[in-house]
Amino acid sequence: MTLTFDPEDHSYRVDGRSIPSVTTMLKDSGIVDTTFYTDTGCANGSRRHKLTEIFDRDELDWDSVADEDLPYLSAWIEAKGDIGFEITEIEKPMYHEQYLYAGTMDRLAMIDGELWVLDLKTGTKARWNRLQMILYGLMVASHTDGGKKPKLGLINLKGNGRYEFTEVDYRDQNTAIATVLIAKWKLEK
Length: 189
Prior knowledge:
CATH topology: Lambda Exonuclease, Chain A
Strand order of the largest sheet: 4-5-6-7-8
Distance between the termini: 25 Å
Strand content: 25-35%
Helix content: 25-40%
Radius of gyration: 17 Å
CATH class: Alpha Beta
Structural class: alpha+beta
Oligomer: single chain
Largest sheet: 5 strands, mixed
Number of domains: 1
Number of helices: 5
Shape: globular
């Protein structure tokens, strides 16, 4: 099967068939409450996220970094140094072969010889982030020999230039899969 991703409308297709994203399923199943989201907050998060990507691709023009974004980028640089991971993929779109959902991993990385899915956040941590991470991990596992699950890490970048690293386990895996099934059930006509 072949995955295509359209960054303009953030849509995914497998062999031409539209499939939902992890975030869409979490919203559609009622797990994510977006009532507190603001356009400004979303724009800030997207811009800061993109800065980390450009930095990791070694394409950053430091003069283009706004003062308000610098602490988040500094936090990312500090996290990379402290955690000591080797990035293997940046902004990697993938899909789950069995459940047919998709998402884009912020980073795939190796830490101490183990594969990790790393997700960057610049806003407030939310409970649903755990389910998001599990679904990403299951997606990666569906493409590995033997279905080995990667480790999962959330890196919350803060406006004071600091970061918080949280390892996520798979204990809520059944809830994450149920979320996928509920969202898909709601989409059926």
